[in-house]
Amino acid sequence: MYNLENVLINPLFDISEVSVGQHLYWEIAGYEIHGQVLLTSWFVLGTVMIFGLIANKDLKPLPEGLQNFTELVTEFIRDLAKTQVGEEEYLKWVPFIGTIFIFVLVSNWSGALLPWRLIELPNGELAAPTNDINTTVALALLTSISYFYAGIRKKGLRYFRRYVEPAPFLLPINVLEDFSKPLSLSFRLFGNILADELVVGVLVALVPLIVPIPVMLLGVFTSAIQALVFATLAGAYIGESVEDHH
Fold this sequence. Notes:
By secondary structure, this protein is mostly helical.
């Protein structure tokens, strides 16, 4: 006879272990981590760093070439931060919002443009870093920590008055809202990137020549939109935390 407790609990363990695709596990200090995510994340970070060094190794008063492109991106990020955070506080948050935007953008594009799955691993398969829920959750938690830090740094303990404004009975709703922000950020990005890569993978398997190309181009566009949405929401949350309520 089966133990009723095991029958009830085992399905919960099965659900908690559900994952998408296979993973290359590395064991570090007794913890298992997804090795393929670190590999592709290091590739993305290395690509951004090398491009930045090459583009800005010989800065000129009148930008040209790659320096012109990097300054265009910087201006775009600065305008984005100014719009979302506000004129008083935006400058100190440009590096954070810019880092989030560029990392998510290059990660998404690496999944849309690079044939990661052609690289064989002992176990698992390579994909965009943002194709793994652990990456998107980490980015969302960094954003949450940042807007809490921004609010407490500017207002001190008065920051927590926002949970009982405009009325104390809204406390549970306001607390739930703060918990839902990282959830929505992480699952929106993860779901969109995963769906895009799955669609492209299926089409490449079924019709490997012409049909997948328009879908890949659409993936490049939607990947850029997802990076913009993530960075915009991060800036909006920080702006909301430093906003003065009268």
